[in-house]
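Researcher: Go.
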Amino acid sequence: MPRLRLLPAERAERKALWAELNRFVIDNDGWIVSQPDAFPVTAEFLPSSPMPDALEDAGWEVRDAGSAERFLPEPEQVCDLNRNKVHRDQLVPVIIRIFTITYRE
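Model: Structure:
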């Protein structure tokens, strides 16, 4: 009969694996947008990102789930009323790619 719950050691291993994946994705300009410590993971990357291939090469199962729009900051330089240059971020819409990621057993 299959078990419905993970054993504590399995839970700790899965939590550590999720944290490692999350750190790797964040460090490489991606976003995990699904519930922490749950698999499969939903992640978003810019279209030019090599991350989906890098994750597959590292042994993860990666599936394309489409695309969406995300607002990202874009720096710009403007002048205030006193003609001083001011730097600020403007949010611009960007198309991103969505993937589901899980570990291969």
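Model: The chain has a mean pLDDT of 88.
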